[in-house]
Amino acid sequence: MKIEGSVAFITGAAMGVGKNVAEALLKEGAKVALADVAVEQGEATAGDFKKAYGDGRVFFVKCNVADEQSFKDAFASAVSHYGHIDLMLNNAGLVNEQRWKMMCSVNIDGVVIGTQLAVEHMRKDKGGRGGVIINTASMVGLVTRFVFPVYVASKHAVVGFTNSWAGNPYLGDMGLRFGTVCPTAVDTAFQKFKDEQLLYPDEFKDMLKAISLMGVDQAVEGFLTIIKDDGSNGRNLAITKDGSKYAHNQLVDG
Questions:
Q1: 200 catalytic, yes or no?
Q2: Mean pLDDT of the chain
Q3: Which residue out of 82, 151, 170, 200 is catalytically annotated?
């Protein structure tokens, strides 16, 4: 995919990995729609990006990914602003084992809603331009971890959902490509959990010490890798501090 001149819609873009991916895309010549429920932080991020990259290439819109109407309105606003979307990054997510229904609404419902909106907008067989849909899972979408089992389940759902779309036999007519990014823990505020967000907080802290946090730049590099790779349909890109590689996928690897 050629990033220069493309338009990306990114959820969870006000801060953290989403913000950094958005800036990386801006540096390569894309336009971005920053979508986030955190309005104050989102507007501040958009303001900084506009100063650095120009007003016409940055757009912020409030978006609660767990609320279907909010998501529809935000996506429609971005389409109205730019005319089209070429790249959809469903990146918003959270960890909270105590409020697991809310967590699943964000981590699962948000990805499903965003993907369906992007599919209907992008698909060439219904008048769209085609496009790329990348959903943020996690390394725990490929493995299991007892410290936050519902979070793990939500990320397995993202992988299964995305890979199922990738296996659609009509993708050629639709002009779409699907993939997931599966990073280990990234050194952002996202990792600063309160104990009540986890089932076993002490064991989680021990786990983080064992694997060590990955730098944001390493995560961003992984995002760019799968976005640019036209052969990545149905692939799950595992991203660690040691680099990125595609994890085994039955759809692709047999």
A1: no
A2: 94
A3: 151
